[in-house]
Amino acid sequence: MNRFATLAQPRHEATSSGSAFHWFWAIIAGFSVPILIVIFGMVAALIEYGELPRTTASFARETGNQHSVELGTYLNIPVPSAFATQAPFAQLTELVIIAIAISGIFCFAVWMNRRSSDHRTREVVKNLHQRLLQQSLRRAESEGAAAQRSRARQLISNDLPELGIGLSLWHRVIPRSVLMLGGCVVLALLVNVWLAILAVISGAGLWRLYSWMRSPDWLQMSRFEIPKIRERLVSLIGDAPMMARLQAGGLADQAFQAELDALDRWVAGDDARRGRLWPVLMFAGSIAIALLVMGLGANILHGQQGLSLPASLVLGLALTASAFSAARLSELARQLRRSSRACESIYLYLQRGDDVAPSERLVGLAGLRESVDLRDVSLQDAGGKPILRDLSLSLRPKSLVAVLGTDDVSTQSLTELLMGFGRPQRGIVEIDGISLRDVHPQALAKQVMWIAPDGPLWEGTITENLMAGLSKSVDKRDMVNVLEELGIYEQITRLSDGLETMVGPVTDLRDGRSSDGLSMNARYMLGIARALLHRPPIILAKEPPAPTEHLSNDPCLKAMKTLAASGALVLVLPHRLQTLRQCDRVVLLNGANLVGEGGHTELLNSSDLYRHLNYLLFNPYRHRSGN
């Protein structure tokens, strides 16, 4: 596959606008260097001869121009008569001013080209972030929310930055460096065809020799093998005392010596390759330079038809600029190896599948009247590992249900299924006899509310977080009553702006509080308060760790019981023993399997696993180490 076509998709994004502006400055920058080299050649000719050398009679007859500067076999630069008739110092002054002006234009064009490249890249990457969000919401309906979280972490932390680096480098190198390379190679060929060809062949040969001697396969193997051997040596040293007690007859020493010899061979091979790399390259470079000097000397010593020193300067500068441009293209090729994988991963994730029904085919939902039923539901992760296996449950309104299990992924996935995230491999999830596959996500979102340990809270004021999505009007006094009922209103009034204090997602907790002054438990209480104001028919809650001080009367638990009594189904993932004791029903999972249902006391009497989990999770002395 053509490596330079790997970023075609992000380069042709609609947000990657401004190509005309970008190409204009790229062309200016690309052609400024060959023009500048010609100006330097003219300055060198003026200094060398004391005046600009006039054109040959044959060239004057062919072109009709009596004033031109010869800088190579086919490189004759015509100059205006007004310039040619000036004094040499005036000519030198004008040439220097022109060179400075072109240098300034080149630098400005490079800056504008870089600015345009970075701007276009940022717009594309920003758009891809937004598309990732939309696709994650869509994929969550069939694959589950937890899978999107881990995938998004890889895409945003690794793949998108790698794509951005490659895309920005592409815009900076293409077409600027290509034009510079082409212009300088043509300039070198015009000065002297054979010397230019010899220089290009020599440079390409040196690069191939360098690539061959570095032997990427060997380096990759050594980087893999040497750490592995060292790990085995460490393991053998750790096992050696035990082996000595077993009187293994020197087997440990023999194994250690064998690994040590293998390490020595790999290190010696690595050192040998690195040690001869630069001497061989320097010798090959010396041969290439000697050939170029011989060719250059033969031209200079040839007489009037030979290559002049100004022409030699132009040739040398043109070849140097060509080498620099070729190095930039090589850097782009190396970066594209990494960016192409990131690009493929991103656009593979963004592909729209056909596994989600179009929204116009889905139905609404008018609350919960009878039950939420899961019948023979089986769910697997991407690797085929069971998360839920043949799970059958019937959850009724006006009940507080706890889900406790040995695997957090299974209990979390159960709540995600009720939120419409994840598509079971087998079985069906229904609300009042309507399959969740047939319910519109927006309709389901109005009936189901998620309460996380941190709220969740998003960027906005506390009031905005509590009222978000609320269709009915709520008096501010009702909001204050709810917060007072939870015992959090006084804490909020101590914040800088009270209910209008700006809050956001938790990014860092210091002394148990985030930067906005709210503790994790306070955030959870705000999530409970939101549910009390909205009164959805289905509430799914995950408790934060229990506070260090014992709460004889947990206001959050009391609020959840109030919600259940008002007709809601409240499903909670407990972290507090009081919650288990007060629940109407506990659902017990062992890995992917349902192994028990009933009240707290009933399960304590009938299930060894439940007693064990209670000891592991809720025993206040579980963190103390024994003697």
UniProtKB/TrEMBL annotation:
GO terms for molecular function: ABC-type oligopeptide transporter activity; ATP binding; ATP hydrolysis activity. Keywords: Membrane, Transmembrane, Transmembrane helix. InterPro entries: ABC1_TM_sf, ABC_transporter-like_ATP-bd, P-loop_NTPase, Type_1_exporter. It is found in: Cell membrane. Residues 372-616 form the ABC transporter domain. The chain crosses the membrane at residues 20-47, 95-112, 178-207, 280-301, 307-329. It is a multi-pass membrane protein. GO terms for cellular component: plasma membrane. This is ABC-type multidrug transport system fused ATPase/permease subunit.
